[in-house]
Design brief:
With about 525 residues, this protein is mostly beta strands. The chain has 4 helices and 41 strands. Helix content is about 5%, strand content about 50%. The strands form 6 sheets. A 7-stranded parallel β-barrel has the order 33-34-37-39-40-38-35. A 4-stranded antiparallel sheet has the order 4-3-6-7. The protein has a 4-stranded parallel sheet with strand order 12-19-22-25. Strand 16 and strand 17 form a beta hairpin. The longest helix is centred in the first third of the chain and has 10 residues. The chain is globular. About 50% of the residues are buried.
Length: about 525
């Protein structure tokens, strides 16, 4: 009997996260047990990403992962992989600062005092209990650790949420300083329950819960109407570096749940993100104009898109020219949402070098979802996008690339929906290369794929290689994408409009009706459907 192979992907002073090295999306094909030395700490595990909590700082642990039911020999114990937790200078328990954790007392001041008192390489420890609080502001070089049973619960009174100004001129009036943001523009918004601005090297770790408590507040009432300021998120990083969120459950968000903004080197590992299916604009994780982002081992089920990669609307895109780039999304489970992995629609700064692999898309409306439109601008370039080793079940339309997305107040105007060839100008976005490989989809209903490029700016290249799409027998009709004057369809194959090159290799469609490929302006079609 041999150990199963794995690698370390995240560590903190009190936790380790490992990832099995296999080719299975999200779930291991074989149940396993995890040992620290000779002690079994996980029995009959199933996920590819595994976290170990409540460890001691600066301590080496011998870790083994073996098939469930196997006995662990002394030889395996000796040859386990040695993994060491991070250094910790001091651990500050928030109860020592006066936090009650009774779910009634407002604990914000006590928790904020602990954060302010935390030195470099210190931990702010949140023990079991429910801590009612208004927004908390993190600082650099610290760990916020929530043990199992700990809940940070957002206050229901919007008056307790400070306002972050959207745009402030610098003192010399030569530049702009951005704090608040809303849907791609620098607009005033409420501070989030966990807010981090301009900090680095900070982690939020543990098995506890960060609960935005939106259902008890008025955030979802007339959600598209601005009141004193736009709605908060639950976790908001602005201008941060080297941030880690690991193990935590985040739920009941007022709007986008986790929103990293103008940040870099971010890791979201083995998290859970949950919102009500009908909650408005409660995307899961929405990195905006961020670089070097890892989302690994995370489960998301929300009321909008699960992961939505963004880079601002036209003003911010042209001003900063800061794309979202170099993302790895791996071993994630997206269940229920408008789209599993989405790019746009706020993408005016561009989106580049995105790799999505070994993921499970489950009961989302769409799998891959690209959303853009005229008006996003010439810097709105989406390119070098690769999906491989993906399993989809009951996804209504597995692949959607839509350059006529009818968002914003002017989204249903003729300028956006026109199929006429318009000038390519400073308002015209660009979509480059997309590769979809080793993807297995069952339970589709609406369409296998829907690709709609602009007549003046076609999608450059789409490659589908080793793709299987099977439709439900009792499929119901629906709209494959959100654009004007699109009729509902059912069991439609691949619709491709304004694509320069569509390459189809080893692609199977089962149970479709009508044409396998609906060609509406593909300049070069290579291959065909089995």
């Amino acid at each position: 009997m041999e150990s199963m192979k794995f690698q370390l992907i995240a560590s903190s002073p009190r936790s380790l996260t490992i990832e099995l090295t296999n080719d299975q999306p999200y779930f291991s094909s074989q149940a396993y047990d995890v040992y620290l030395g000779d002690q079994k700490v996980i029995n009959n595990g199933s996920k590819n990403v595994i976290s170990l909590f409540d460890l001691e700082p600066s301590t080496a642990y011998l870790v083994n992962v073996v098939p469930s039911g196997s006995s662990l020999s002394q030889e395996l114990i000796t040859h386990g992989i040695s993994l060491t937790t991070n250094e910790e200078y001091v651990c500050l328990n928030i109860k020592d600062f006066g936090a009650k954790g009774d779910g009634v007392t407002m604990d914000s001041r006590a928790i904020q005092a602990a954060i302010a008192s935390c030195p470099n390489k210190g931990t702010v420890y949140v023990p079991k209990g429910t801590y009612l609080c208004s927004p908390l502001f993190l600082k650099s070089h610290m760990t916020l650790y929530l043990e199992r049973g700990a809940v940070l619960l957002g206050a229901a009174d919007r008056n307790l949420y400070p306002i972050l100004p959207g745009c402030t001129m610098t003192t010399d009036e030569k530049d702009e300083y951005y704090i608040g943001t809303w849907e791609g523009n620098p607009l005033s918004s409420h501070a989030s329950l966990i807010t981090a601005i301009g900090i680095e090297d900070t982690a939020i770790v543990g098995q506890g819960i960060i609960d935005g408590n939106a259902e008890q507040a008025d955030w979802w009432i007339n959600p598209k109407v601005k009141k004193d300021a736009w709605r908060p998120r639950t976790i908001f990083f602005n201008g941060c570096k080297d941030m880690v969120v690991q193990g935590i459950t985040v739920q009941n968000s007022p709007s986008w749940t986790v929103h990293p903004y103008l940040s870099e080197r971010l890791s979201f590992i083995d998290m859970t993100v949950k919102n009500h299916k009908d909650s408005p604009n409660t995307d899961g994780i929405d990195p905006e104009s961020c670089s070097d982002v890892k989302i690994i081992g995370t489960y998301i089920s929300v009321g909008d898109d699960c992961i939505a990669i963004k880079s601002g609307k036209l003003y911010m895109g042209q001003k900063l020219k800061r794309p979202s780039k170099n993302f790895v999304i791996r071993n994630c489970h997206m269940q229920s949402g408008h789209g599993a992995v989405v790019m746009g629609s706020e993408m005016s700064g561009g989106i580049q070098e995105i790799k999505v692999t070994k993921c499970f898309f489950d009961k989302t409306d769409r799998g891959l979802r690209i959303k853009t439109r005229r008006g996003r601008g010439k810097d709105g370039i989406i390119d070098q996008i690769a999906f491989d080793t993906i399993r989809m079940e009951d996804v209504l339309t597995p692949f959607v690339i839509n350059m006529f997305y009818f968002c914003d107040p002017d989204g249903k105007t003729e300028y956006v929906y026109s199929r006429d060839v318009l000038p390519v100008d400073d308002w015209t976005p660009y979509l480059g290369d997309f590769i979809f490989k080793d993807i297995h989809c069952t339970g589709a209903e609406v369409a296998g794929a829907f690709f709609a490029g602009l007549p003046e700016q076609p999608i450059k290249k789409v490659i589908m290689d080793k793709v299987y799409v099977e439709f439900k027998e009792d499929a119901k009709p629906g709209a494959p994408a959100m654009l004007s004057f699109l009729d509902d369809v059912c069991k439609q194959g691949i619709s491709a409009e304004n694509v320069e090159c569509l390459q189809i290799k080893d692609v199977t469609l089962k149970g479709y009706e009508g044409q396998a490929i609906i060609n509406k302006g593909v300049k070069e079609l290579i291959g065909g459907i089995k």
